[in-house]
Amino acid sequence: MKATREAVQEAGRVAKKGNGSAKMAGMMASACAEQNVDAPSPEEMIAVSAYFRAEHRGFAPGCEMDDWLQAEAECKASQDS
């Protein structure tokens, strides 16, 4: 669990620098693999990515579905590559 928390914190730092959520998802999975813990599910990675997208835009209402769909597309693309 600790590795996942650290990966999420690092993903937050990456998000604040303006890097893509696909990179965040990859970082989370890599950190979990290095620590021999189960990687977060695709849904968890998408949720974290969508959260950081919402945070980046100041949590303005009305874009939640767009945040989720963009995060989902980027996470899927990173898994396919």
Give structural notes.
With 81 residues, the protein is mainly α. It has helices at 2-16, 21-34, 42-56, 64-80. The protein has one domain (2-80). It contains 4 helices and no strands. Helix 2 (21-34) crosses helix 3 (42-56). The chain is globular and about 40 Å long.
Main attributes of the structure:
mainly alpha; 81 residues
Describe the structure concisely for a colleague:
With 81 residues, the chain is mainly alpha-helical.
Shape: globular
How many domains comprise the coordinates? 1
**Number of helical elements:** 4
Mean pLDDT, to the nearest integer, reads: 75
How much helical structure, as a percent, in the residues? over 70%
Share of β-strand residues: under 5%
Counted beta strands: 0
Q: What structural category characterises the helix and strand content? A: mainly alpha
Poorly predicted ranges: none
Gyration radius (Cα, Å) is 12 Å
Q: Biggest β-sheet: count, sense, barrel?
A: none
Q: Determine the N-to-C terminus distance.
A: 26 Å
SSE arrangement, N to C: HHHH
